[in-house]
Amino acid sequence: MLSVVALGFALATTSCKKETTETTVMTDTDTTVVVNETVAVDADVQAQINEAEAKYNQAEADLKAAIEKGDKKAEEAAIKVRDEAKSSWENLKAATKKAAEDLKKGTENAANKLENAAEKVGEKAEKAGEDIKEGYNNTLEKMKTK
User: Residue 98 CA to chain centroid, in angstroms?
Assistant: First the structure.
């Protein structure tokens, strides 16, 4: 239970600009726990993505301008700059997406481990309850025979 709270706190403290929220409901015999996962893009990372997109858009505009002027050298240079800007932008987006997916997988793994631990605790508590009941019954039997 404490792990769920810690996990929620850790995810909530991530600074973000874009968020995707998923809700996982885990239940045991007397408590329902809702874990809100936030897969977020850090504001600094989002700023880098926006900057890379702006550079790509500017390079695209420069290419169009070179084509309109009929300047073949400027057109070739603009194509190269545009392609590099596009590649940089796409690589940054892909790396960010992979990091978000890795975070989500890690969160799912943590939730699964927490659920397994809760099941084990429940099983041990049930066994302890059976042992107590058996001990109580044995004590009653011994008292009856006296």
Answer: 10
Q: Report if residue 79 sits inside a domain.
A: yes
Evaluate whether residue 122 is within a structural domain: no
- Residue for token digits 């240079």? 77
Name the pLDDT band for 123 (thresholds 50, 70, 90).
confident
Mean pLDDT of the chain: 75
Domain-embedded: residue 78: yes
For the entire predicted model, the pTM comes to: 0.47
Q: Give per-residue pLDDT as tens, 39-87.
A: 566 788 888 888 989 999 999 999 999 999 998 998 999 999 999 999 9
The CA distances from residue 25 to 12, 71, 72, 85, 123, in Å, are 17, 61, 61, 43, 20
Residue 120 lies in a domain: no
State the Cα–Cα distance between residues 2 and 107, nearest whole angstrom. Answer: 15
Task: Indicate if the alpha-carbon torsion angle 109, 112, 118, 124 is positive or negative.
Answer: negative
Per-residue DSSP letters for 40-52?
Answer: EE-HHHHHHHHHH
